[in-house]
Every structure is written in C-alpha cells, then in structure tokens.
Amino acid sequence: MQIITLTTDTGLQDYYVAAIKGEILKEIPNANIIDISHTIKPFDIAGAAFQILCCYKDFPLGTIHIIGVDSEPILNGENQSFPTILNFNGHIFICNDNGFFGSLLEGEISESLYKYSDIKKNEEMWQFTTKNCFVPLATKIAMNIPIESFTEKVFTYKKVFIQKPIIDQFTIQGIVIHIDSFGNLITNISRSDFNRFGDKTPFTIRFVKGQYFIDKISKTYNAVQNGELVALFNSTDHLEIALNRGANESTGGADRMFGMRIDSVIQVKFEPAGSQVDFNSLL
Fold it and tell me: Which pLDDT belongs to residue 49?
C-alpha cells in the first residue's frame, strides 16, 4: 500500500482537496492518503516546509509527499519553475521548484533532484498542477517507474530567505515562526542553540519588548499550573512558549494573551559565570 501525504494551501472550503484525493484513488486505488495540512497560508512555502520537516520522518520510508503550495509552474521568462521531485532521506517530495526545496533542505546539497520539464508539452497540466501533474508523477513513482526515465537530473534549486536566530556572546535573538491551533508560539530557536551556552547557564527568555519573561525550561505543559506561562522544547526541539491550557474561550492562547504574531521577537539572555548579571541589563 503506497502512502501519499498531502500538504496544500487550498483550505477545506472548496472541492480542491477532494478532487486531488479522487485523482489519486483513481490512479492508485490502494493508496493510503494522509493529510498533513490544507490550511497553509496561501503561497507560504516556508510554512509548508516547516510543517513537513516536523513530521515527515514519522512516516515509513518510501512515502510520497505531494506539496501543493504555490504549485503553478512558471514556464517562460528568466524566473522559470518546474515540477520537481526530490529523493531525500528515503522519502519522495513532489513540489514546484518555488523555494520549497531550499526551505526543506536548509542549505544541504541533494544529488537526487529531478525536474519534470516535459510539462511544457502537456498543457492540461498547467492548471490545477497539484492534481493534473503532481498526481501523475506520484503514480509513476508508485508503479516503480525509474524517475530518471521521465525527468532530467538537476543539481540546483531555488532558495528563499529563512531568518535564523542571531547569536552573540550572551544572547540569542529569534522570532516566532509558527503559531499552532492552541495559540502556542513556536520559535526558530532550537535546543542546540541553547546548548551552545551550557546546560546549567542561567537565562531569561523575554518577549513583547521585554514586558514578559520566563527563566525556566519545562519538560511538559502540565509542569506549571493551568493558565501559567511555560517554555519548553517541543517534539521537534524548537523553543515554544505557551499558556498551559490557555486555548479556551475565556483566555485564549499565548498569541492572544500577549499580542504575539509571526515574526514577533523572542530574546534569550544568558548569564554565564563572570558575565554581568545585573537584572537591569536584561531590560
């Protein structure tokens, strides 16, 4: 049974997802279709890459991931983009070369990247590309047809700007990169960023221009009382700030409580031995 995941920016209001799934089942009747997300912000390829990075390793090797975000190719001019197939870590990713692969690979070089340039000859694939092009490509792969037989190998892909944390002698400055359905704030600061300063170095996490702070990393949300502020490293080792059980009609999550948005600044100030520890320096 072939597992195929779907990630799109189409939303769930219209027929688009149903049409894609219908086409998959028509071509691969025993396919096991898994939805990753269909509520990606329109054309947000970095957001799509983040969602997939967080979960693709949870699927069996050989899974085909179809990414229908900003999927329409650009077939003329200098900024052309084609449907592209990536074989990476035992998984297959099918997407328009619109910067998604740059976000997914995070600068790594892949020798298993293939461009489907024959789309130029198939006008029926130019519209609703996720259904009319990506699904046929997935079908060929599921039938064990060698990718090289219907694509051409390439070694470059488009990149998009991804903001990394700014790290100096005693400070990490990051941003919120995702807000989940609970209103939890997921940042671009990783556990490995923290580990640069040692396991036991005191620190203060500050946000909303320093008005709020946390000086402890918890292992779970329930390590604090209901409604209290908590910081932890989530299952993907990203620093997350939340209100324990705050996602309800009375208070809302951390995003609503603190007026935080995507790209809001999060600062971590460390106090290693011998450094200035005056609390006023954190303000």
Answer: 94
